[in-house]
Amino acid sequence: MSHTKNQLIEALSNRSVEGINEFGDKYRAVQILPILKERYPTQMLKELVSVRIYQTERFVYLETTIDEHLEKQDKLYDEVMKDIVDDIDALKNYRICRDSLSFPVEGESTFSPENTVFENAFCFLSQEHETIAMAYDFFTVEGGEEVIKW
User: What digits encode the pLDDT tens for the residues 81-133?
Assistant: First the structure.
């Protein structure tokens, strides 16, 4: 599904948070995973539980969160542990990765902290399918190959 800039910003407006990060910097982040799942319903990694545009006053990042339990798909571990632990979800580990989007392309950065986090999210989501498939680790091998062919 294609969104206009205003439609996308409106859809994202209730998916944003702001605060102070671990370095004492102000940040604002917006969750874009639901839109990615809408566009790529069967191609994405199931262990990918969050994709956000994360922005400080100086930099713009792509932040991804992987549920390591889903990644490993360790069903034997689940069976053994369910008898020992009341809540198996309490044992989950998440891997969060923040990759800079503040790199210059042809002399200019596509993503700028001078833009709102919503404008940067729109810019990110406006990239070609092939670019998203090749530059970011969102897809299964088969899913990535399918997206590249679009």
Answer: 666 666 556 667 888 999 999 776 665 668 999 999 999 999 999 888 888 88
Q: Supply the range of the domain harboring residue 55.
A: 5-67+95-144
Burial class of residue 143 (count of CB atoms within 10 Å of its CB; 0-12, 13-18, 19+): middle
Whether 88 is in a domain gets the answer no
45-64 pLDDT per residue, tens = 988 999 999 999 999 999 99
Q: Is residue 108 part of a domain?
A: yes
| C-alpha distances out from residue 39 to 3, 42, 93, 143, Å | 11, 9, 27, 12
Q: Is residue 126 part of a domain?
A: yes
Round to whole Å and give the CA distance between 63 and 53: 6
Is the pTM higher than 0.85? The answer reads no
